Structures are given as structure tokens and as C-alpha cells.
Recover the amino acids of this structure.
């Protein structure tokens, strides 16, 4: 059995994708919607999150999303660093981060739906 045509087609597709993503980094790696992960926020990878890391990473993501044409309508409602630092020791652990995200999600779910607009 000869698989050469399908191999060459696959090779061309992969090469085109590589060239496209290399030439267009903002299109190649769009900022994902939804909450940022602890790993994405912990930019120095030390296992704890500082307020500087949170706010710097959030600002960078907002810049990326704005360049992609996304509205930043929910930015004023983003959780503060203090809402993640549950024990108030000045650094957020992955456990604190996860617990705070669950609490924030629960609070959002308990909010009444917005009134319909006309």
C-alpha cells in the first residue's frame, strides 16, 4: 500500500500551519477566555503568587485580548489579589487560588440575572 500522497498532504498542511503560526503570533496563541490558571499567573514558577504577578499577568492578558478585538467589559469585576490571599500572608498558594476561584464562581452563580435590555 502506498501512503505517499496522504503523507505529502499532511506534511503540507503541517508546514502551512507552522508558517502561519510563526508569522502571526497573536493569531497563533490567542489568550484563552475565562479565568487564568495559577500556572499562567505564577510567572516566576516559584509555587506562590504575588500581587505583582497577578496584576502584571492580568494587564498583559488584557492587552493581548484587546489587540485581538475583544471587549474588556468585565475587567472592573475582576477579583482582587486580596480575594485570593485567604490567609492574608501576602502570597497565594495554589490551594488558596483554587478555593478562592470556587468561592467566586459560587458567588457569581448566586447573583440574580441581569434585567433584559430593550
Amino acid at each position: 500500500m502506498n501512503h505517499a500522497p496522504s503523507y505529502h498532504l499532511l506534511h503540507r498542511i503541517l508546514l502551512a500551519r507552522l508558517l502561519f503560526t510563526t508569522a502571526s503570533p497573536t493569531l497563533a496563541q490567542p489568550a484563552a477566555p475565562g479565568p487564568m490558571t495559577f500556572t499562567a499567573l505564577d510567572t516566576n514558577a516559584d509555587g506562590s503568587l504575588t500581587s505583582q504577578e497577578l496584576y502584571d499577568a492580568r494587564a498583559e492578558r488584557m492587552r493581548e485580548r484587546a489587540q485581538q478585538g475583544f471587549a474588556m467589559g468585565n475587567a472592573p469585576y475582576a477579583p482582587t489579589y486580596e480575594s485570593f490571599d485567604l490567609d492574608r500572608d501576602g502570597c497565594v498558594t495554589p490551594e488558596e487560588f483554587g478555593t478562592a476561584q470556587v468561592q467566586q464562581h459560587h458567588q457569581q452563580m448566586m447573583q440574580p440575572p441581569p434585567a433584559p435590555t430593550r
User: Anything to note?
Assistant: Residues 62 and 68 are 10 Å apart (CA to CA). The helical segments are 4-23, 25-28, 38-41, 51-67, 81-84, 94-110. DSSP finds six helices and no strands in the chain. Residues 18-28 have pLDDT under 50 and may be disordered.
